[in-house]
Amino acid sequence: MGTVAKVVIAGGTGFVGRHVVTALQGRGARVVVVGRSPDAARARLGVEAVGWRDASGLAAAVTGAAAVLSFVGEPVLGRWTRRKKATIRASRVETTRALVAAMASAPAGARPAVFVSASAVGYYGLRAGREDAPVDETAPPGDDPLARICVAWEAAADEARALGVRVVRLRLGVVLGDGGFVAQVRPVARLGLFGPLGSGRQGFPWVSVEDVCGVVLRTLDDPDMDGAVNVTGPALCDQRRVVRAIGATLGRPTFLRVPAVAVRALFGEGANVALADTWVRPVRLERARHPFVHPTPEAAVAAALGRGRAPLSAGEPER
Known about the structure:
This protein is an alpha/beta fold. The chain has twelve helices and eleven strands. Helix 3 crosses helix 4 and helix 4 runs parallel beside helix 5.
């Protein structure tokens, strides 16, 4: 696709979305952000913006766009109340349907060529694969609440295929960068009070935010990027390795393990996400010989924490 003329991105003010916006601007793209606060998006990112409630504005935005990207979603870490679970689902499934509806309203010749929709490795379930047998994109979905949300999320995105739009479903691992997970644990880690959750031997499918951006840009140019794509780092690791990398980068100890029972007492059903044991390999990217900027979690953590600037908001919904 080369330099993209116009790209619409939902969730452009969230942690991952902001990095993707910057990467697109670096390629000379005309970026239009879809969000709850378009005025804030314009002021913060210097882009065009439209609100979710502006149906006509959303339809006009996607008309003539080369691509539509979506990085929406209420953060899944935290205590899962009934309301939070409903918000987690709606912020993914319903917003995706709204984007597809906007594409459907555009004239057939003016619809985007590709719809890149973020999903998550949670698709495979809270217990998936082993270190010696990680799952790839052909693995079936899990049957827990988060996996079912991911299935519905991806199904909503796939509805764009009926419009002649190529659909890429990016199953993201835990994104390491100056926001999200790293920003959430950084204050505790700085105090030397950070350590593994549970045994720490759980599979931890990580990826750097820079590599997420690289994969996104590739999907715009590479027609072979179609369907599910695991976006995780090439080095398999358990949670302990990431925790130790954070401690080593900050020069703080990480010996204080948090028992699984304490995590469950704090987060209730949401503890299942924090304690998930998922081993995932990015087989499609590996077969495409995709280059990774940060091939190890240590490199990704160093990039996230070694920039000398304050982290982005950790808990901000990417919508």
